[in-house]
Amino acid sequence: MARPALCLWFVCCVTAAATSVSAQTTTVITHGFQATGAFPDWTLAMGEAIRTRAGGGTLLRYNPTTGAWDHVSGSQNPNNALILAYDWSDDSAWIPGIDDDRVGTAHGAADALFAALVAPALPAAYGSEGALTRASGTPRTLHFIGHSRGACVQSETVRRLTLAGFVVDHVTALDPHPVGPTASAAARSLTARMPHDCGR
């Protein structure tokens, strides 16, 4: 009977996450494993729900080909909430026996996300605004939501951000899953930092 409890926990986390969004918030949503390598629509649906709950804002999707954040919906007003849907779908599509570098792809995805947040290619309407700080230099409230292996990507990104001096206000791990065999030292290193032990 763990499934109903998990569903209720998921709804509660998403609802709690959405209620704390303000105009000063950047929310980053990261999906997990995608067997087909296709970007999951639920990330954009969640982003829309957060944007609506915040009373406005902009939803952007990371383009792994260009490294830019592409506009999905919203006003593109830098004074409103910023919701970022991170796409690492192609790299997340690990196939057993063909490519056994799940830890490496998760680290690579964290590298790309870190770079896309620290020096973001935001739409022109944002001017000197950043994903992590306002044009005035005031830090934005940062909230990370990661699902499955995406929670481990988020964890590594958050670790790098805190080492770089940024304050992360909230991390939500939805059904975290290890990125690789938990017997490997690299997988243990990446997953051990997750809330509720992502390596389980």
**Helicity, as a percent range:** 25-40%
Total strand count, please?
A: 6
User: Compute the gyration radius: what is it?
Assistant: 16 Å
Termini gap: 19 Å
Strand coverage percent: 15-25%
Number of helix segments?
6
Shape: globular
Q: Sheet with the most strands?
A: 6 strands, mixed
Structural class: alpha/beta
Query: H/E element string?
Result: HEHEEEHHEHEH
Output the strand order for the largest sheet: 3-2-4-1-5-6
Q: Which regions contain 5 or more consecutive residues with pLDDT less than 50? A: 1-19, 194-200
What is the average per-residue confidence, as pLDDT, rounded to a whole number? 78
Properties at a glance:
disordered C terminus; six-stranded mixed beta sheet; 6 helices; alpha/beta; single chain; 200 residues; disordered N terminus
Quick gist of this model?
With 200 residues, the chain is of the alpha/beta class.
How would you sum up this structure, described in words?
- With 200 residues, the protein is an alpha/beta fold.
- It has 6 helices and 6 strands, in the order αβαβββααβαβα.
- It has helices at residues 2-19, 41-53, 89-92, 102-118, 149-163, 185-191, and strands spanning 25-30, 58-63, 68-74, 82-86, 141-147, 170-174.
- It has a 6-stranded mixed beta sheet, sandwiched between helices.
- The two termini are 19 Å apart.
List the helices and strands and how they pair.
Blueprint: H1 2-19, E1 25-30, H2 41-53, E2 58-63, E3 68-74, E4 82-86, H3 89-92, H4 102-118, E5 141-147, H5 149-163, E6 170-174, H6 185-191
Parallel strand pairs: 1-4, 1-5, 2-4, 5-6
Antiparallel strand pairs: 2-3
